[in-house]
Amino acid sequence: WRHMEAPRRVKRAWVIPPISVSENHKRIPHLLVQIKSDKQQPGGVIYSIKGPGVDEEPAGIFSIDKLSGKVFLNATLDREQNDRYRLKAFALDLDGRTLEEPTDLEIIVVDQNDNRPLFRQDVFTARVLEGAEPGTCVLRAEATDADDAETDNAVLRYSILEQGPGGLFAINGSTGEICTARPGLDRETVAVHNLTLQVADMSGDGLATTATAVIYVEDINDNPPEFTKEEWSLEVPEQAAGVDVGRLLVHDKDLAGSANWRAKFTILEGDPEGAFAIRTDPHTNDGVLSVAKVRRARGVPHGEKVSPMGRLLTPLPLSAAAGPRDAGALRADGVGAERAGTGGGRAGQRAGARRILPRVSPMPGPAVRVSLTAAPCAHSYALLYDPAGWLQLDPHAGTVRTQRPRRPPAAFLQGGWYIALVLAHDDARPPLSATGTLSIEIVEVNDHAPLLQPPAGPLCARPGPSARLLLGATDDDRPPHAAPFHFQLGPQLARNWSVARYNVTHAVLAPLVELPPGLYSLPLLLRDSGTPPRERQQLLNVSVCPCGPGGACLDGARTASRAGAGVALGALLAVLGSLVLLLLLALLGAARERGCRRALRRGLLRRSRDDVRDNVLNYDEQGGGEEDQGLRAADADPGVPPYDTALIYDYEGSGSVGSALSSLVSSLADEDQDYDYLREWGPRFCRLADLYG
Fold it and tell me: pLDDT by residue (tens digit) across 505-527?
């Protein structure tokens, strides 16, 4: 028989269930659990633990009291670094012998919502065709959260905080996918849409972060070219082939410089022999009418009408198929050789339009000059067409300069070009003329750093959804040398403050910890997106104020912050003025009181010299009236009781411990008392001395 050993039963007290403890626990040290073994009496067991967090990295987080078996947490835990710790617990006797088999001690770190969700990008960009149908998805803005994915701390919800009028885009709250919400995308109305996105955990009720989505609307061919007027009247010399007669101006709302914008001109009627040709200027999109072949003298009837038509190089989409192509009338007046005289050859030399392409920077400084040259005998020049009044032409030298150092308004630019027409006259008889097109390319340079607007504001001292200060910036430059702007605080401020992007031109400042109320001057680095970028460090004055209901500043603090940092100069002057006024009033009052006292003393002294009685009755003097005369009559009447009988308030009774107060009673008690000493008290007491003496 082989003796089979039964499985050893582990005592219930020595089996330790998993222990849960929250991350970021503040009360350190914190008792987690107490383990014990019933192998020995209390005090006869030595406990110990080993493993990560005890004697392995990160060491020192947990410890155990070797006699009581109490396990303590000694440091703050971060679930995002370690979500659980697996330790071994040991029980030994006082001699070091094992009392229990080592048991597992598992400590689970419970997640807290201590991580904001983060977008994968600060700025998302996408493109969509104008006229896109609702439901056309543009991009997906994804975000991550470092908290536990199994809890609500990492359940994200996406939303659009701001997108401008129209509400053309919508975002899927769960996936972050952005799609068109309704029809109406029109590049000619809004070419770029800036969306401010937000993602928040706790299903949208927790911590939040913002990002920007920039959606560019791409052009489609949905606008026909339009002539700027219905009829032109031009003159053409006879027997001059290859001469440009004039220009037909058209306007197309599609993207300048694109195939959708470029027009093609066709002569529909009025020129059966093909004497004229019309071509498209690739830079201005104008139609240039020229003489295609030489015709006999006066071959072109005076006042013959030619009808050109402008059409698109690319066909219109179906949605714009009904849009008309524009047509106009051109009156070409033939000028005979007899009229031109010997100047006809010169006219042939100067009739072609001259194109000059200077690159202009809009930065302040010396004006840009362009020299126009027509022919040796040219005498004067004039501007035929200067839409913005931006140019100045020397009529004799042909020098063109800008009247202002700034660039012309964008409304007068065509694809970044400023177009003007110049007329040249010679001094012949009759004079001949020619027109030329002056095309100036406006090249934007990044010569301005962004400026913080406004440079100060109030902020609630306690962190929360309402404790935010919206920061903005402006830049005198134009795209692409302006927005998006980048806001950055110094690294030494990152512990107490955070700056998050709100949109391409704004950011949000928020406190990370509760701050004492007061004025804070924060150095802020502001940078644009130009090439190369320009940046400027500015001071942001933040008035941190006590928080009211809902996390807003209290009224007094809000008023003080609106007045600026510190006490405003006007308020300070008002306070100082009030203090000075109070001081003057106090001095005047003191001086008046002092004067009154002096006058009173002088009056008392003067009266005391005249009548001693007035000095005695100073506190209740009525003047020398009836009351005074009744007192004299009483004093002179021997039958009237003594004056002090009026001062008897109550009868004390016989046998009183205190002696009687009345002089009458006193006289009854002691008839031999001498009252002559009363005469020494003054004239007022002489009568008493006579009565009782």
Answer: 899 999 988 889 999 999 999 99
Q: Round to whole Å and give the CA distance between 285 and 279.
A: 9
Question: d(Cα 285, Cα 383) in Å, to the nearest integer?
Answer: 20
Classify 626 as helix, strand or coil: helix
Residues 469, 463: Cα–Cα separation, whole Å: 12
| Cβ-proximal residues to 541 (8 Å cutoff; 6+ apart), any chain | 455, 456, 457, 519, 520, 521, 522, 564, 565
For residue 22, which of 117, 145, 147, 118 has the smallest C-alpha distance?
147
Helix (H, G, I), strand (E, B) or coil at 103: strand
Q: C-alpha angle 401/405/411, rounded to 5°?
A: 90
Work out the number of other CB atoms within 10 angstroms of the CB of residue 681: 11
pLDDT for 618 equals 41
Query: Strands 98-110 and 19-22, how do they pair?
Result: parallel
Domains, the chain, with CATH or none: 19-110 (2.60.40.60), 118-218 (2.60.40.60), 226-297+306-317 (2.60.40.60), 378-441 (2.60.40.60), 451-545 (2.60.40.60)
Q: Would you state the structure tokens that stand for residue 106, as one six-digit string?
A: 């598992």
Identify the CA nearest to 290 among candidates 302, 303, 275: 275
Whole-number Å distance between alpha carbons of 563 and 458: 10
Distance, CA of 525 to CA of 540 (rounded, Å): 10
Q: Using alpha carbons only, how large is the chain's radius of gyration in Å?
A: 52
**CA distance linking residue 177 with residue 161, whole number of Å:** 15
**Which pLDDT band holds residue 613 (cuts at 50, 70, 90)?**
very low
429 compared with 11, residue with greater pLDDT? 429
Q: Which amino acid is at 132?
A: A
How far is the C-alpha of 588 from the C-alpha of 580, rounded, in Å? Answer: 12
Beta-carbon contacts of residue 138 (< 8 Å; ≥ 6 apart): 126, 127, 128, 169, 178, 179, 180, 215
Most confident of 210-224, 270-284, 313-327: 210-224
Contacts of 85 (CB under 8 A, 6+ apart): 51, 52, 53, 61, 62, 106, 107, 109
Transcribe 290-307 into DSSP letters: EE-S---TT-S-TTEEEE
Q: Please report which helix (H) or strand (E) contains residue 337, including its range.
A: helix 337-340
Length of the chain: 693
Asked whether 347 and 429 are in contact (CB, 8 A), the reply is no
The set of residues, in sequence order, having a beta carbon less than 8 Å from that of 521 and lying 6+ positions away, is 539, 540, 541, 542, 565
Question: Residue 342: left (phi > 0), alpha (psi -120 to 50), or beta?
Answer: alpha
Structure-block tokens of residue 323: 């849009």
Which residue, among 325, 319, 326, has the nearest Cα to 222 in the 3D structure?
Answer: 319
Task: Give residue for tokens 């950055």.
Answer: 488
What DSSP designation does 605 have?
H
Closest CA relative to residue 378, chosen from 341, 427, 437: 427
Q: Who contacts 683 (Cβ-Cβ below 8 Å, separation ≥6)?
A: 612, 613
Distance between CA atoms of residues 686 and 691, nearest Å: 9
- List the structure tokens of 456: 């100060």
Q: Give SS3 for 460.
A: strand
Residue 51 bridge partners (DSSP): none
Biggest alpha carbon–alpha carbon distance for the chain? 172
End-to-end CA distance of the chain: 147
Q: Residues 158, 118: contact at Cβ < 8 Å?
A: no
Strand partners, 211: 197
Whole-structure pTM over 0.85, yes or no?
Answer: no
- Using CB atoms within 10 A of its CB, is residue 146 exposed (0-12), middle (13-18) or buried (19+)? middle
